[in-house]
Amino acid sequence: MTGTATQADRNGKLGPGKMVLVVGPSGAGKDTLLNALKERLAEDPRFRFATRQITRPADGATETHIPISEAYFDEALAAGRFALAWRAHGLGYILPAELDDVIKAGGIVIANGSRHALPDALEKYENAVVLLITAPKAVLAERLAARGRESREEIERRLDRSQLDMQDIPNLARVENTGTVEEALDKILKKLT
């Protein structure tokens, strides 16, 4: 190899761009904020929003994603055709491999993530940022009940899991989503740029 070694070459991590994984409990407003952020940054070429591949059918009630089979998920993992992949709640999730090209070119990838993906992301990327969207437990309960998709018992179980322990995560950016969407977007952009 000729020329100057990049930082990624020296430390074995992929860069120089950023991988931003958005995480948070159900009801915190991740999907709403991701959609609004995508709209606000549509003309900024630095940002690329990931579309996840998930082993669940598209139903219009959940995030826009590419439905994949369990067999495809297993094949993609075996062949290394992914930027990040993980399992959670009985489903397989893939962030496509081409996102790594965006990061190599210095871009910023923003993806709906999972705490299950964090160890791999922190190990793989020089600039892995965890964007934790939170809200007080009472606000989460109100939002989950308003969705009308779960029983009271299911909501209680979600609330029990809502307190994510992120104390040891480097590059953690915490945003409490209790105001307007615009207020939350302003907080997010301050942390990302």
Kindly summarize this structure in a few lines.
By secondary structure, this protein is of the alpha/beta class. Helix content is 37%, strand content 21%. It is built from 8 helices and 9 strands.
Walkthrough of the structure:
This protein is an alpha/beta fold. The protein has a domain at 15-50 and 98-192: Rossmann fold (3-Layer(aba) Sandwich). 37% of the residues lie in helices and 21% in strands. The chain contains eight helices and nine strands. A five-stranded parallel β-sheet has the order 2-7-1-8-9, sandwiched between helices. α2 crosses α8 (181-192) and α6 (137-147) packs antiparallel against α7. The longest helix is centred in the C-terminal third of the chain and has 12 residues, at 181-192. The protein is globular, with a radius of gyration of 17 Å. The two termini are 32 Å apart. Residues 1-10 have low confidence and may be disordered.
